[in-house]
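Researcher: Please predict.
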Amino acid sequence: MADAPLTTTQAPAMAMLDWLLTGASEQQIHEALSQRYPNVDPGHAMQQVQAHLVAAGQPHPDAINGWCLMAYRSLYQKMLAVGDLDGCRKVVKEIQLLGAGR
């Protein structure tokens, strides 16, 4: 199977992934692919997408925790900026639970 992370050289597969994530049907994807990338083998592009999705479905637990902490920080900053102190309290509690290995 192809390398899991999609790169800019795999533009057809990246486009196909975007179409899948926006709910396009198989027919819509095939039509768009043939119009945008007429020389691309749809089966090969789908194999690249599948490899990417498999890898995305197996993240390292530390990567998940890091992403969660960064997302919580962003939410906290936005809530603090608009004065949502109750929301800030909830974010702090969630961070505490995450740190406790919940």
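Model: The chain has two domains: 8-56, 61-99.
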